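Sequence in, structure out. Go.
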Amino acid sequence: MKIVVFGVTGNIGRRVAAEAIQRGHEVVGVVRDPAKSQPVGGVSLVAGDATDAAGVARAVRGADAVISAVSPRPGTTGSAPKLANAARGLIAGLKEAGVKRLIVVGGAGSLEVAPGVALMDTPGFPAAYLGEAMEGRDSLNVYRTEADGLDWTFVSPAAEIGPGERTGTYRTTIDQFLTDERGHSRISYEDYAAALLDELENPQHVGRRFGVAY
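Output:
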């Protein structure tokens, strides 16, 4: 497949690209300024902005699938998109380009610890991550209400995600927050990327969110 990845230079985007290339896919990475971006092995970089529907359409035309690993944190340009705006730009751009398959890197904050109770709404949720969690939930709501006609999937990681091993082993959930037998919720970047590519190659969650954790 030809896969276009937005946010390819980030921690997750790099792992997703590496996993896709290892599986034999062609990867094109979309960044705001290729000249200022660190190279990503085996990936062709093109300029683009997920919030700009026309630019999205140009970047993804001819692709088999699009992966958005856009982060709400400032990058090399010192600015960051609102994830809801990126969602709308991607939805409109993919529709214009005639590309249906979209997988989105999401967050853990909107997963439910009890029916109707999101992790981000619990008293112990870290204040430092609340803004990002709100953006993630806002973007998920955009996909749920505005992405008709696209085969979209929103992938929430565990609460703790970082560098680690690629084991290829993980559990999945739909909207429930997953923890292990010791109460920890974690996943490596590498296994998160594997889960995302598994979903791309063998779709199980089209039109909805799912989560991954150990």
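Check: Helices lie at 11-22, 53-60, 83-97, 130-146, 189-201. The mean pLDDT is 95.
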